[in-house]
Amino acid sequence: MPHDVELIILLAVGFGLALFFGYIAARLRLPPLIGYLVAGILISPNTPGVVGDVHLANQLAELGVMFLMFGVGMHFSLNDLMQVRRIALPGAVLQIAVATLLGVGVSMLWGWNFGSALIFGLSLSCASTVVLLKALGDRGLLESINGKIAVGWLLVEDLVMVLALVLLPATAVLLGGQQALEGSSSDQNVWITLGITLLKVAGFIAFMLIIGKRLVPMIMQVVARLGSRELFTLTVVAAAVSIAFGAYKVFGVSMALGAFFAGMVVKESDFSHRAEEETLPLREIFSILFFVSVGMLFDPRILMDQPFHVLAVLGIIMIGKTIAAMALVLFFRYPINTALTVGASLAQIGEFSFILAALGVSLNLLSLDGQNLILAGALISITLNSFIFSAVEPVQKWIRERSSLARLLERSGDPLAMLPDEVSQDYLRDQVVIVGHGEVGRRITLSLMKQNIKVVIAEENREIVENLRKKGIAAVSGVATEPGVLIQAHIQHARLLVISPMDIIDIHKIVDIAKTLNPAIQILLCAESKEEAEVIRRDNIGEVYYAKEEMARNMSNHILNQIEIAHNHPPTHYSG
């Protein structure tokens, strides 16, 4: 019996090629999504061989966008953003503005109209969260202050892009898009449409924050009580898709925005970790389909037909954005290491660029050549991004060794890089120097101060240092692997050095500096894992504590104490 098999062919060939090329990319230490894009290119109408159904691919891509945005919403953390808001918020907004202006300027030199140039510039201004999280995770930087700044920066970029996705359809006529081509709108009508759109968005957000925030977690709790794993997973998936579709159908806003808020309300549930874990495979499958479908839209001939245009795009992504971000980080008086890490994080574009480009094409704001240039820039920049990250350490070393200006920029005139004058010299003798003021550092500081023990904090996050000083706690801003930071903390007169969990290489550097400045100092180290604790113990550089191990030991002692009490004082039994 004849039947349609286009969807089966697309899935079979797409997944097979995505697996093959994703594996090759991973073996080459590249993000697997490079392989997924290549798989899409090979089954696109623009290359010979098997051709997938582009119409079906576009529908699957819509689902992929929903689940991508749902994942972004689930990972969106207002607390993480608030920790680095003073640098991430203005930095991301200014960097988007710089990159967008560069894209607009270059494309208008090519003769494009303003609408096309604006979509083009916006698409080049936003980095890929998927690529960033993988790059930081592979290097153990996610929990570092540099990693938190980079992630916070990307969160702001994501919010700006979500806003752009909402506003572009309403303003298309002003930019020379689809509605203008139909000739049905005046400027006055456009502003009315824009106002109505903003009211609908506000109504949807209010609905989600007032009703959705309570209703979705309640439904998840009811289903979770049944103990059925598949029903729980179905509940989460249904929430993502139905809220996205409802946002589009009822409120007239994009499904991407609906999926983003669906992720945010699911995150508010007590079952958010379970929801994230159990829907991860499904989200990843649809993400793969999204990247394959994006690859199917790419025409490789753009690399030969317009090589200088492609180079200009790469220049904006990998040089213009990077320099702008680094300059902004240094302006906020963060060290070169932070500037290089954030710059490397932003030297690529990804999923939001694809979504914006597709929206621009659908609104007749962007040509297919423009979309191909964006896709070429994404493919090449993502491929090269891991090499840029690998160059951060040697470039940082080279700059510091050869540039007195760089060293001056890092510390000169920075009040947070030096202890306040009101900290007495008596206080800076026999004190405890604590490197890092994360969860572990905060607990240690609180315990010591309750016992009236003198402490000095060395912390990379400037906002944390400012808050500590407001509370009257001695703190100095900077990276403790730099001798100047420990010197400012008066490590040479300290009794004890406590190092919060961090990279083992950095721990060794800090210990070497501390021992050089104060050979008699005692050192306490906090490890993140049992394996890391064992490695540090073998190196014999100080006393090592592993949080889970200490907790288990304390609980065991408590249990033994309770058992001994029960043994010495057995309960009285009564017979009825």
Overall morphology: globular
Largest beta sheet, briefly? 6 strands, parallel
Strand content: under 5%
The N- to C-terminal Cα distance equals 77 Å
User: What oligomeric assembly is this protein in?
Assistant: single chain
| Low-confidence segments | 179-186, 571-576
Helix content: 55-70%
Question: Would you kindly provide a written description of the structure presented here, covering whatever features stand out?
Answer:
The protein has about 575 residues and is mainly alpha-helical. It is built from 26 helices and 6 strands. It has helices spanning about 5-25, 35-40, 55-75, 80-85, 85-110, 115-125, 130-140, 145-170, 180, 185-225, 230-250, 255-265, 270-295, 300-305, 305-330, 335-345, 350-360, 370-390, 390-400, 405-410, 440-450, 460-470, 485-490, 505-515, 530-540, 545-570; strands spanning about 430-435, 455-460, 475, 495-500, 520-525, 545. It has a 6-stranded parallel sheet, with helices on both faces. Helix 6 (about 115-125) runs parallel beside helix 18, helix 11 crosses helix 12 and helix 15 packs antiparallel against helix 16.
